User: Fold lipopolysaccharide heptosyltransferase II from Geobacter pickeringii.
Amino acid sequence: MEKNSVHRILVRSTNWIGDAVMTTPALRAIRESFPGARVTLLANSLVAPLFTVHEAVDDVIVYDRRGAHAGLGGKLRLARELRTRRFDLAILLQNAVDAALIAWLARIPRRMGYRTDGRGPLLTHGVPVDEHVRQLHHVEYYLAMLGRFGVATRDRSLALFTTPDEDAAVEELLQSHGMKKGDFLLGINPGATYGAAKRWYPERFAAVADELSRRWGARVVVTGGPGEAAIAADIAAAMTVPPLVMAGKTSVRELMALIKRCDFFITNDSGPMHIAAAFGVPLVAVFGSTDHTTTSPWSDRAVIVRRDTDCAPCLLRECPTDHRCMTAVTVDDVVEAADRLRTRVAVPEHSA
Assistant:
């Protein structure tokens, strides 16, 4: 591919927050490989806020699949919108045929992506998916596709960005709940959007939060989306020292700034886990039904706690048996992992 002829690039994002965070090294590779090009990200309404402020993205178009872009008529409408921007290249990080169809309908002359979901004929620069590719960590999976066409970066770290105003707003929020700027903040993230099989138990999160709060002198904040509000309430009710419950009370941008402010994070395999990894927050992640080899936090400041069982990873939304992959993970397992990690990465007693 003649890179000098590429001036406008459309990147189709993945549809889940965690997956989208794991594409940020790929976005950096695109930016570095096409330094003079304008990079536009097409993303759904859940993922788009991650990139409204990002050094690898110039602008974001929201793909409104349930509204303006619903159905075949909506796809045609979106394709017409994209056609007016005269993109030279579409890079499809999402694997679905939908992404390739829209790029084809938009008459984008070069369309790059994996040959998944039967969409190979719609791609001009397609890459087959073999068993080796399927076993790659998601960060490497996206980079491998781009690397076939010379789009690469040496910096493979995750990257997200917040604004000074967003960071200041979080400090104001914490102070309004009696916290000081230097307080050690422990984030507890009990949710996992994909399904209950990924979730450790509220009473165990509560016990971990109580114990680490006692050992570290930490203040505790419980994060999550609207669907985790009830779980967060259960954790708060079970704790000896009441935490600040923010589950269901933040936008994606506010959640990013809140996680960034945390000094340590205890979490399930989830989108917020990957956000914490992107901001370099030390974290302990409990894994059960999901595959830690492909979706583990991409960070050297992270520890995974899991137990080998005969049925994990099953990748199911709901456990059909006794959830042994999660019941086997104890409170002591997570507390000890957190203590070891905190010592290794030299997390201070109080933030600067």
